[in-house]
Amino acid sequence: SVVGKVTLLYINVRRLKQDSLLLLCVVTFGAVLAAVAGYFAAVKLGRCTSLKIFSTASFIVTLVLFKCISKFVTVALFFLIKLLQSSHDMITLIIVPELYPTAFRNTAMGFT
Fold it and tell me: How far apart are CA 3 and CA 76, in angstroms?
């Protein structure tokens, strides 16, 4: 029943400890640095090359994540994954609209 599922979810919830919240903030900060890294990589290396680098690096770092070494290394790897994935997503959002011709893109801009 729905009540049983809600009760089960409530029982499994734990409060975050202060150090866990700090580690979560550190990992999330990777998205802020991703904006800077993604911009500079797209300008210096080109958009397609940057996408390839961020995708490949993210895949490799994710594979390394399966080997748990310590809490510090795990947080550092999650930070790096967040940075790489956010940079990749930012460049993807720039490239996708450029794939279509200008006449096609302008049809969604308003009434003519």
Answer: 39
In angstroms, the first-to-last Cα distance of the chain is: 54
Note down pLDDT in tens along the chain; length 112 residues.
555 555 555 555 566 676 777 788 888 888 888 888 888 888 898 888 888 898 899 999 888 888 877 888 888 888 888 888 888 888 888 777 777 777 766 666 555 5
Query: pTM score > 0.85 for this model?
Result: no
Identify the burial level of 72 via C-beta atoms within 10 angstroms of its C-beta, where 0-12 means exposed, 13-18 middle and 19 or more buried. exposed
Please name which of 84, 85, 109 lies closest in space to residue 97, comparing C-alpha atoms. Answer: 109
φ/ψ (deg, to 5) at 3: -65, -40
DSSP 102: H
Q: Say how far apart CA 93 and CA 109 lie, in whole Å.
A: 17
